[in-house]
């Protein structure tokens, strides 16, 4: 009987120890892996440290529309910066009807792209190719090589709900290790301000760098640090030759006015010093707006122009982008 009681006591003692050890681990996994931004997610960094603290403007529901291509007067081909339909809301406010498609659906700008667009029913005037700085060279090279596409674009009408502030959710996917790593990273950054160097050496996803006057540019708790995508640092800048290659693609079009909306990498706006010749060439050649030069100035007047925890723009940033693109189309139409 005594042996049995002793066994029960030891079992209870062992269970208590395991419970005390596992409870904080489970709690961390449930509360720390509540990622909202793409950079906090891939970098295993805390939203408490890097989430924006600014309430963003609300875009009216009736401006969150992608029209069918046969009803549109502006055709937008782009990536995740366009599929959210945020910057296009400025077009709708000014009476234009944009149709938006992802590059995955259209493919590259093949030699017969204009014919394909016309066969799809587009009777508008403007085509906008949106691409990020990181991917513009590959997209242009892929397009130059492409001679023919058999695709026609489907008649898609998209109505999106107004965007609300993202709410962190409890993690139920069992990412225990990620939760612990996120907490460790947070403790390091909050208590050892040189730890970003160690984290960058270990990281294959997101980089952290101190930012001069960072708290004038960002609103997150660790606002003296900026969070950036590691792939941005693989290349110094866009080749100036890319401008001539874009002109060759544009020369394939005779019915439509073609513009390119090249979105700067977040790091190019806030942290890296890169040559401006490509961006100035875009503006001088009326290929598209010079977003890099504009964003480098605007970051001081629009806090969180880019979201602190993300590679993408904030809603305020998207609305500013829409104003720039709309103004450029007006200039293009006046040519």
Tell me about this structure.
The mean pLDDT is 88. This protein has 16 helices and 8 strands. With 335 residues, it is α/β, with parallel strands linked by helices. A 4-stranded parallel beta sheet has the order 3-2-4-8. Strands 1-5 form a two-stranded antiparallel sheet. The chain crosses the membrane at residues 12-30. This is SGNH hydrolase-like domain-containing protein, acetyltransferase AlgX.
Summarize the structure.
The chain is α/β, with parallel strands linked by helices.
3D shape: globular
Q: What's the mean pLDDT score?
A: 88
Radius of gyration: 24 Å
Quaternary structure: single chain
Q: In total, how many domains does the architecture comprise?
A: 1
Task: List the defining traits of the structure above.
single chain, two-stranded antiparallel sheet, 4-stranded parallel sheet, alpha/beta, about 325 residues, 16 helices
Present the secondary structure layout.
Blueprint: H1 2-31, H2 38-43, H3 47-50, E1 65-66, E2 74-78, H4 80-83, H5 89-93, E3 98-102, H6 103-106, H7 113-119, E4 126-132, H8 136-145, E5 158-159, H9 176-191, H10 195-202, E6 206-210, H11 214-217, E7 225-229, H12 241-250, E8 257-263, H13 266-270, H14 277-284, H15 291-298, H16 315-333
Parallel strand pairs: 2-3, 2-4, 4-8
Antiparallel strand pairs: 1-5, 6-7
Helix pairs in contact: 1-9, 8-12
């Amino acid at each position: 009987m005594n042996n049995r009681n002793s066994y029960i006591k030891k079992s209870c003692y062992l269970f208590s120890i395991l419970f005390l050890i596992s409870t904080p681990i489970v709690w961390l996994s449930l509360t720390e892996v509540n990622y909202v931004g793409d950079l906090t997610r891939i970098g295993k960094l805390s939203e408490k440290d890097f989430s924006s603290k600014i309430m963003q403007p609300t875009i009216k529901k009736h401006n969150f529309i992608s029209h069918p291509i046969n009803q549109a007067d502006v055709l937008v081909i782009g990536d995740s910066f366009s599929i959210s339909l945020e910057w296009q809301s400025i077009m709708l406010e000014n009476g234009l009807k944009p149709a938006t498609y992802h590059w995955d659906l259209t493919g590259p700008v093949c030699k017969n792209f204009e014919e394909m667009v016309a066969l799809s029913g587009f009777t508008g005037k403007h085509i906008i190719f949106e691409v990020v700085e990181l991917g513009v060279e590959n997209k242009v090279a892929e397009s130059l090589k492409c001679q023919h596409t058999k695709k026609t674009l489907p008649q898609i009408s998209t109505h999106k709900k107004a965007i609300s502030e993202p709410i962190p959710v409890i993690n139920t996917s069992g990412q225990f290790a990620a939760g612990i790593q996120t907490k460790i990273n947070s403790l390091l950054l909050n208590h050892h301000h040189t730890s970003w160097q160690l984290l960058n050496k270990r990281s294959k996803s997101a980089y952290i760098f101190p930012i001069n006057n960072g708290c004038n540019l960002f609103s997150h708790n660790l606002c003296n640090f900026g969070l950036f995508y590691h792939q941005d640092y693989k290349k110094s800048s866009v080749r100036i030759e890319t401008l001539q290659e874009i002109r060759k693609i544009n020369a394939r079009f005779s019915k439509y006015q073609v513009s390119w909306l090249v979105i700067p990498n977040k790091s190019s706006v806030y942290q890296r010093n890169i040559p401006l010749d490509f961006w100035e060439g875009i503006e001088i050649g009326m290929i598209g707006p010079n977003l890099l030069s504009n964003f480098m100035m605007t970051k001081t007047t629009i806090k969180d122009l880019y979201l602190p925890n993300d590679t993408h723009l904030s809603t305020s940033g998207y609305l500013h982008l829409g104003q720039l693109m709309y103004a450029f189309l007006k200039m293009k139409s006046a040519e």
